[in-house]
Amino acid sequence: MNIAITKQSKMLPVLLGLLGLAFSQALSAQINLVRNAELDDNIDYWLNPYDRPAEWNSADHEGSNSSGSAKLTNTGTSNGGVSLAIEQCIPARPDTQYEVGGHIQIPANQPDQTTAYLFAYTYESGDCEGSKASTHELSANGVNVWTRVTDVFFTGHNVTSIKIILGVSKPGGETADAAGLFDGLFARAIAGQTGDVLGPSMSTSWYNPSESGHGIMMHLLDATTAWMCWFTFDPAGEPTWICALGSVSGNTVQFDSAFQVEGGVFPPAWDPAKIKEVPWGSITVSFDTCHAGTMTWTTGAAGFQSGSMPIARLLPVWGTYCP
Question: Is the full-model pTM beyond 0.70?
Answer without folding.
Answer: no
